[in-house]
Specification:
By secondary structure, the protein is of the alpha+beta class. It contains four helices and five strands, in the order βββαββααα.
């Protein structure tokens, strides 16, 4: 990390153990003559890829929360309207999934990023075509 200080008509940059003027500071950071070293280029690409993955995960998190909340709401609404006893077999799968959806909603709202990522790995293959 470099700190910048202004002396008279020049800027000077200080690292932990040395002072640099602007060209030396660029060289210290790995930028030379408007070109970037391969190591810095790799780090930039790595950071860019990581930010893309984080954005993709956050988008999934939002869409999955909406999707599961909608399923939960519609199933609860169906239960409130009253299911005839002869149709219970038809709705058994929905009624079985209800506590699972409640758990997913709880994780998405209150869980840590690690818990959300575990949910992502579990739920992503199941609902690939859902959103």
């Amino acid at each position: 990390m470099l700190r910048m200080q202004f002396f008279g008509r020049r800027y000077r940059f200080r690292s932990k153990d040395a002072w640099f003027i602007f060209p030396g500071a660029l060289k210290h950071l790995g930028v030379e003559q408007n070109s970037i070293t391969p190591k810095v280029r790799q780090e930039i690409a790595k950071r860019k890829r990581k930010s893309e993955l984080v954005k993709k995960f956050k988008d999934w998190e939002l869409h999955y929360c909406i999707y599961v909340s909608d399923l939960h709401f519609r199933t609860k609404k169906l239960m409130m309207s009253g299911i005839p006893p002869e149709d219970l077999d038809l709705y058994a799968l929905l009624l079985h999934e209800l506590p699972i959806w409640e758990n997913h909603i709880h994780i998405l709202i209150h869980g840590s990023d690690r818990e959300k990522f575990e949910l992502y790995k579990e739920a992503k293959p199941k609902c690939r075509n859902s959103f």
